[in-house]
Write a structure and sequence with these properties.
heterodimer; A: 312 residues; mainly alpha; 13 helices; 0% strand; B: 129 residues; 3 helices; 30% strand
C-alpha cells in the first residue's frame, strides 16, 4: 500500500473552538455555583499563552519529529495499513508510549525541564490542560515513538492518535467533576485520577502518569486513588513566582545549566544533574519525592502503608 | 483549519475568557493574614516551620524566619510564592522595596510597604543576604 501521502485531520486545531467554549462554561459554572474549582485571571492567561506557544512551536519544529519518524518508516519492512482496527490498536499502544514518556518526564530532570511548566500552575482547571511545553522537541522523547513506526504504524497515524490523546486529556483537568461511574474510573483516566497526578501532597508525588487508560498505572505500580481526607494541593513542590510564559517555559532548563556551571563538579555529577530525578543534588542535600514521602511518614506514622506510601 | 481562522478563534477566545474572568472578579488578589502566610509557607517549604512572621500592612507580602534563614513570601494572584533571601539584593522603590533574586523564574520582586516597614525590612533583608 502506498502511504507516502497519508494524511489525517489536525484534530487538535479542530478542537480549539471546543476548548474555548468549555473553558467559558467551566469558569461560569464555578462563578455561579461557588464550587467546582478556582480560576485566577493571570494564572489562566499564562496557561493559555503556553498553549498558544505550544501550537506555534509545533508548527515551527514539528518537522523534526515527523522527519525522524518518516526516516524510520522508510526503513521498516512492516506496514500495517490504515484499517480502523489498526488505528484503534495504534491509539492504545501510543497511550502506553505516552505513559512512559510522561513517567520519564517526572523522573528524568532533562525531560522534566520540558514538562515542569504543565505543573507550574497552582490551579487545576481546563486552562491548566493547555499549559503545554514549548521545549518537548529537545527532550528527544520522540525516540519512544520509534517502536510504533518499526511495528508498521504510519507516522501520520501516530501523530493523529497522539492528538486524540491530548484532546481526551483536556476534560480531565477539572475539579467540577467529582467521580465518574466505577467501571469508567477502573479503566479510564478521569478528573479524580488526574487531580492526584497534579497534587503536590507527598502522597500524590510521582503517581498516575496515564494519558487515556489508567490501567497502565495499575499495571506498573504507580496508581494512587484520590483520598477524601487528603485533598490535592496543586502546583510544584516549591512553586515558581512568575506568570511570565517565557520564564515558565525555560526556568528549569536555566536551572540545569546553572547547576552544570557549579565549580568543582565531576563530569559524572554534571551528567547526573540532567538525568537524575528532579531535586537531586550532588552533595546529597536535595529533596526528591522519595525523601519528601519519607519525611512525611516520619511525621505521620499512621500514613505508612496507605495509598501513595506503600513503599516508604 | 486555515491558520488565519485558527488565529482569529484563539485571539477572540482568549480575549473573551479574560473579560469574563474580570467580570466574575477572578482577578482579585489574596490578602494575607499571619495564619495564611504561615500555612502557605509551610506547604511551599516542606520541613520548615515559620518561627517569626512580619506581615506587610498591604497584605501582599511577608518576611518569614525559619530554620535559621529569612524568607520572603509574596502574593501571586490567589496564591503565593516564597524564596529564601540568601544572595538577594534589595533597593528602595516608590512605595516599597525591590528584591533581586538569583532565580530565573523570579529575578525581581517588588514589595509594597509603608515607610516604617521599609525602614524595618531593608536591614533584615540585607542581613539575610
Amino acid at each position: 500500500m502506498d502511504l507516502s501521502t497519508l494524511t489525517y485531520p489536525d484534530v487538535v486545531s479542530l478542537a480549539v473552538p471546543f476548548f474555548v467554549a468549555a473553558i467559558i462554561v467551566e469558569v461560569t459554572w464555578i462563578f455561579v455555583k461557588h464550587r467546582g474549582g478556582r480560576y485566577e485571571a493571570r494564572d489562566a492567561m499564562t496557561s493559555l499563552a503556553m498553549g498558544v506557544g505550544n501550537v506555534v512551536v509545533g508548527i515551527l519544529l514539528g518537522f523534526v519529529t515527523y522527519g525522524f519518524l518518516m526516516l524510520l518508516w522508510e526503513i521498516t519492512p512492516v506496514d500495517l495499513g490504515t484499517a480502523w482496527w489498526v488505528v484503534a490498536l495504534c491509539f492504545v499502544l501510543d497511550d502506553l508510549r505516552y505513559y512512559w514518556v510522561h513517567r520519564f518526564g517526572h523522573r528524568i530532570r532533562w525531560v522534566w525541564a520540558s514538562h515542569v511548566n504543565h505543573h507550574s500552575s497552582q490551579h487545576y482547571n481546563l486552562t491548566t490542560a493547555l499549559r503545554q511545553t514549548w521545549t518537548g522537541t529537545f527532550t528527544f522523547m520522540m525516540l519512544l515513538s520509534a517502536p510504533l513506526v518499526l511495528l508498521g504504524f504510519h507516522p501520520a497515524m501516530i501523530l493523529f492518535v497522539g492528538g486524540l490523546n491530548l484532546i481526551y486529556q483536556f476534560w480531565i483537568h477539572t475539579e467540577a467533576i467529582d467521580k465518574m461511574p466505577r467501571w469508567f474510573e477502573a479503566v479510564m483516566n478521569t478528573p479524580s485520577h488526574h487531580r492526584v497526578h497534579h497534587g503536590r501532597n507527598p502522597r500524590y508525588l510521582d503517581a498516575n502518569y496515564a494519558g487515556v487508560f489508567i490501567i497502565w498505572d495499575k499495571l506498573f505500580g504507580t496508581f494512587v486513588p484520590e483520598q477524601a481526607d487528603d485533598k490535592p494541593d496543586y502546583g510544584l513542590v516549591h512553586n515558581i513566582g512568575t506568570f511570565n510564559p517565557l520564564r515558565v517555559a525555560f526556568h528549569e532548563w536555566v536551572a540545569i545549566f546553572r547547576d552544570w556551571r557549579q565549580p568543582g563538579l565531576t563530569l559524572w555529577d554534571r551528567l547526573r544533574y540532567a538525568v537524575m530525578p528532579p531535586g537531586w543534588r550532588h552533595d546529597g542535600t536535595g529533596g526528591g519525592s522519595e525523601r519528601l514521602k519519607a519525611d512525611y511518614v516520619a511525621k505521620h506514622p499512621e500514613a505508612r502503608g496507605t495509598p501513595g506510601f506503600e513503599n516508604v | 483549519m486555515p491558520l488565519w481562522l485558527l488565529g482569529t478563534i484563539v485571539v477572540v477566545g482568549l480575549a473573551a475568557i479574560w473579560v469574563i474572568m474580570r467580570v466574575y472578579g477572578f482577578d482579585r488578589s489574596l490578602m494575607l493574614t499571619h495564619d495564611i502566610a504561615a500555612e502557605e509557607f509551610a506547604i511551599d517549604n516542606p520541613g520548615l516551620v515559620p518561627e517569626d512572621i512580619h506581615l506587610a500592612k498591604s497584605g501582599q507580602s511577608a518576611l518569614i524566619l525559619a530554620g535559621g534563614s529569612t524568607y520572603v513570601l509574596w502574593v501571586m494572584g490567589q496564591d503565593v510564592a516564597t524564596h529564601d533571601l540568601a544572595k538577594a539584593q534589595v533597593t528602595e522603590a516608590d512605595g516599597g522595596l525591590t528584591l533581586r533574586l538569583p532565580d530565573f523564574a523570579a529575578p525581581r520582586v517588588t514589595l509594597t510597604l509603608t515607610e516604617d516597614e521599609k525602614a524595618k525590612w531593608k536591614p533584615m533583608i540585607e542581613e539575610a543576604a
